[in-house]
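Message: Study each token:
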Amino acid sequence: MYGNDRYRIEGPTLTTTRDISNPVALQSNRWAAVAAVAVGTFLLVTAEQLPIGLLSPVGEALRVSEGTAGLMVTGASIVAAVAAPVVPLVIGRLDRRILLVVLMGLMTAANAISAVAPNLPVMLASRVLVGIAIGGFWAVAAGLAVRLVSEKAVPKATAVIFGGVGAANVLGVPLGTALGGFTGWRLAFGALSVLALVVTMILVAVLPPLVATQPVGLRQLAGQFRNPGARAGILATLLLVTGHFAAYTFIGPVLQQLSGIGAGFVGPLLLGFGVAGIAGNFLAGAVIGRAVYRTVLGIAAGLAVLVLLYPVLGHTPIGGIVLLIAWGMVYGGASVSLQTWMIKAAPTAVEAASALWVAVFNLAIGLGALAGGLVVDAFSLPAMLISAGVLLLLAAIAVWSHRPSSAEVSDSRLTHPQGA
């Protein structure tokens, strides 16, 4: 929570009051700044997941296995998981505008290094820098909507900012894969570096001063583990995202080796996955405010069924394509749904809860990539899909066990997701 914004809970709904002594509250809406932050989150999450679609060419160029190349995802995600809660603690009242600009500049440099990396150690070092930028930027961006627009416009601004995350989750990998296929993987990283530099300059131009007067503390972070709703959301996120990325990290080899689809079609198919994911994101966004529990449960259960069916029905091109598109549509709603769950679970400590959620989300990406790589190298692609499906099934059980009658997370309408 920033400035003098005050929260109150009225029954099952979340509302806010805003102190007019806070000069930020009196400013006109800054939609250009909201859009810039959204594009920044899109680029950051895209950078985190870009190697997923480029494992084979990067592995060949750096002379490592696909499982080892998956460490590019694991390393960045684990570092991001650490940075998400640590950065808000360390920066204190530092102007968030300065922080976001610095982190986007770091992203620019990191991807430039990735583009010219001569070996795996240099590549992994660049991915550490990517992880720091991702964790810090995403965690701070989670609370910016309330600083940039009027109270009435906060839900829309929040949706826009987190739309960057959702879009990257479903479109970042397909776009990176397609770009890498056309230009080579080094130019794909280089292009991302150039785009990050452009966004850095835009942030300098459009962001207002964003000094926090009440920074996140250890007590707020620790307190979320005593919140039953937040605990359930964190556990569900850990299991769901780990299971998804254990399988999705190796979707290229799965499509080629299990479904018999040519390498040239992988990029376009992943783009189809992304388009389906955008549709799923809009669908989830339309119902999540009044049906958080059912939406998250449906996403977890749906993903479990689809991934577990892949070794059975995905052995033909048609079967593989149908399952992939359905998978994309269901997963497309995961980010916004899980984030909304956390907002409703901790309405008076949204920034702290969001920082922990971002940490767990990124940790799960890394754990998923690592676990998937270990299973692929030790066993087979079908074994990896089955293990990922089991994790997704456990996520569904975790959600199911937290009944919607609890006060922390219910199916009541989310009227004002402040500070998300």
About this structure: Residues 1-27, 405-420 have pLDDT under 50 and may be disordered. The first strand starts at residue 6 and ends at 10. Residues 199 and 327 are 31 Å apart (CA to CA). Strands lie at 6-10, 13-17.
